[in-house]
Amino acid sequence: MDKRGSKPRDKLIMFVFVFMLFYMQQCICSELELLLSMKASIKDPLGSLHDWIPSQSFCHWNGVICDELSHVAKIELSGKNLSGKISESIFNLPHVESIDLSNNQLSGEIPSNFSSCLALRFLNLSNNNFTGPLPQGSRIPLLETLDLSNNMISGKIPENIGLFSSLKVLDFGGNVLIGSIPKSISNISNLEFLTLASNQLIGEIPRELGFMKKLKLIYLGYNNFSGGIPKEIGELTSLYHLDLVYNNLTGEIPSSLGNLTNLKYLFLYINKLTGPIPRSLFNLKKLVSLDLSDNFLSGEIPEIISQLQNLEVLQLFANNFTGRIPHALTSLPHLQVLQLWSNKLSGEIPKDLGKYNNLTILDLSTNNLIGKIPENICYSGHLFKLILFSNSLQGEIPVSLSHCKSLQRVRLQNNQLSGELSLEFTKLPLVYFLDISDNNLFGSISERKWDMPALQMLNLARNKFFGTLPDSFGTKNLENLDLSGNGFSGNIPRDIGQFSELMELKLSSNKLSGEIPDELSSCKKLVTLDLSQNQLSGQIPMSLSEMPVLSLLDLSMNELSGEIPPNLGKVESLVLVNISHNHFHGILPSTGAFLAINSSAVVGNQLCGSRGDEITSGLPPCKAVKKSSIWWFFLTCLLGILVLLVFSALVVVFIQRRRELKLKKVESTQDGNWDIQFFDSKASKSITLNDILSSEISNTQIFVKKFNHVNLNIPKSFWTDIQELGNVRHPNVVKLIAACKSEKCGILVYEYVEGKNLSEAIGGMNWERRKKIAIGIARALKYLHFSCSPSIVVGDISPRKVIIDGKDEAHLRLSLQTIFTSSKGFSSSAYVGPEYKGISEKSDIYGFGLLLIELLTGKNPADAEYGLHENVVDWARYCYSECHLETWVDPAMKNDAVNNQNKMVEMMNVALQCTATEAAARPCASDVVKTLDSFVRSNSCGLGLKRCSSV
């Protein structure tokens, strides 16, 4: 070998080697600078980037993975609570293949140099707070995954989106995108997963999707798409998941969908689809879940549904289906959830339903079903929700249900069921909600042992039960007990006081006798007490005046006698009282709920009223009562002058207290004359106008809210209207102490509640604390909507209206908007329903739903501008439908999610029902309270179901 010839070649090799080393060193230095630039733009509260320092090789930095040549290949910093803006430098890394910054708090726009990252294969920026437009389509040759979901990205999908031709995963869901889907999307021929759900997209779903033969998943739900479902989708034979829910799709379901032989999940609920279910759909033998509910579908459910042997969930409720429930359903071995409620189905429930299935939820309510409840309905031993109300079912409750230990929620009301309750039926260990009212059931319920430790709601009303009332139901958690409209007799058990959680007790329309037990006063949470239409005697117990939240008291049509306890009129929470058709005598209290009591609520007694009250109560003034009355004559003669003196003193005190609460006129150096109305006698003694105007109280703490009289255009009925708020007494509603009005402005004076508003208090709270707050707000709404007459609508349930005290109790502060719903000063709020045409109870429910979303996710619609609160709802729907709890739950509660996942999912379900676009679809406050109370105190659905049955 010629050694002379090898020297130049060796030198060349050496030069190239040195050059490569130099180049690599320069490249590595450049990458170091780019990473440090990225770190400089990010806030890192958890210290995840603490080791990003120049003195240490970046290949050993947390979240940085290098390739064999020590170049940055991957950046993995998901879920690190990073905030700030994302630096352009990250997309200048020449060799990076994967970037995952998902589940953080990053904001700002996605850098414009996004497309310069030519080596990039995987990019996930989901679950952040990015704004601005989507990046323009670009030929990034290797990019396979682009996930920008659950941000606040706006604008249209770029027309050149098809340039991302190598994509396999495209997820823009949970943003605020508008416009239509560009047809160029069909150029992404390798796409397998397409998610555009929870945006504001419109137009028709492009038929060009049918050209994308490799698609496996399409999720376009929670948008405003219109038109029909393209028949071309039926050509996507690789598709296993199709979700087009919550749009405005019309027309019939294309029969071509029957060609999707790999389809496992088909969700088309909440659209405007019509016509029958195409028979071709029943060829989809791999189908696991089929949900076509909330449409206008019609026709019969065919027997060929037996071909769907892998079906686990079938939801066809809220349609117009007719005919019988197909017997073929009994042959589906994996069927767990069957919901056909609110249709026009007739005939009998198939006798073998449940025998060969694995039923966990069965809801056939609100149909025209007849016959008996099948014996084998709980054969699997897993049934926990049985909802059959509002049909024409007959016969006895099957004995087999008495052995169904998995049952939790049972609603059989409004049927024609008969017979007695079996001994075992009253010993079901997990049932927390039992409603069998409005049937023909009979027998004594006190001759068996009740042992239902989980029971919270029991309704046996309007049946034919008789005998005495049980001393116990085997639970101390009972919150709602309705035994009205039966034939119960005997005394009200004194053990009734053991129900410390009881909020509603209805025993009306029975044959109960004896006295009202004093022990009722031990039920400190009792809001509604209805003992009307019985044979009760004796006096009203003085102890009823000690019940702190009693709101509705109905003692009418009994044999009660004596005088009305004066202190009963001082129960601040009491709003409605009916004592008509008894044997009461004496003076009617002129305080509290008795101030403006209707004549129908006091008629049929021997009562008299204070002067001036006869217009409302219909009672004669007490001075008109004949002095020849035996009782009065005897008392006068016996006590003589002494009694007159005492009586006069009492009258003076009484008149003085009435005057304290009446409208006063007070002069002030500020704004001239003031009209003041006090709603609290104690406050009227300790608070002066100067105190209110200066907002400085030495002995009594208050919260003052001033408003401009002129701008609000306050009507003449101001003092009458404000009285409604002044009478409100509930532990979860801030008490209004007084109202003041001058020519220029007005002032509302509230009881001071020490604490923070909801948005300020929520940070760092765990699940248990947030759960307590949610229930407190719901109970306040239930009280305002159902216990006040007329009902009170809040108007704007925003976080600033909710004060959280040191014990995590929620206090809702009412405002002028609550009364002046049509005033010029009231503007639409993020917390008022989107149908805003004047506030209503259902708009209150919408606002409450948004508060639930904030409690669960930490996200507040007020964080965004231009009405993006609607998108918070859309985002929540998207996250919930995807069932990835970790993507939407507030990071502060992630540790709690391990043991409370199902309950959090259930609460999100309630939030989404409350924020339904159509007001009629939202639940009422009483149902919300029952639902929240029930699932937070018991084991929730183990399936984490996406949809709920009729409550």
End-to-end span in angstroms?
A: 93 Å
Which architecture name of the largest domain does CATH use? Answer: Orthogonal Bundle
Beta strand count = 54
Low-confidence stretches: 15-28, 624-633, 646-661, 821-828, 864-869, 939-951
Largest sheet: 23 strands, mixed
Number of helices: 14
Overall average pLDDT:
82
Report the CATH C-level class of the largest domain: Mainly Alpha
Relevant CATH superfamily of the largest domain: Transferase(Phosphotransferase) domain 1
Strand content: 15-25%
Shape: globular
Q: Gyration radius, to the nearest Å? A: 34 Å
Question: How many separate domains?
Answer: 6
What is the name of the CATH topology of the largest domain?
A: Transferase(Phosphotransferase), domain 1
How much helicity do the residues have? 10-25%
Category by helix and strand content: alpha/beta
Structure description:
- It contains 14 helices and 54 strands.
- 20% of the residues lie in helices and 21% in strands.
- The chain is an alpha/beta fold and 951 residues long.
- The chain has 6 domains: 29-154, Ribonuclease Inhibitor (Leucine-rich repeat, LRR (right-handed beta-alpha superhelix)); 180-297, Alpha-Beta Horseshoe (Leucine-rich repeat, LRR (right-handed beta-alpha superhelix)); 302-437, Ribonuclease Inhibitor (Leucine-rich repeat, LRR (right-handed beta-alpha superhelix), Alpha-Beta Horseshoe); 489-622, Alpha-Beta Horseshoe (Leucine-rich repeat, LRR (right-handed beta-alpha superhelix)); 664-751, no CATH class; 760-935, Transferase(Phosphotransferase) domain 1 (Transferase(Phosphotransferase), domain 1, Orthogonal Bundle), CATH 1.10.510.10.
- It is a single-pass membrane protein.
- It comes from Nicotiana attenuata.
- The chain crosses the membrane at residues 630-655.
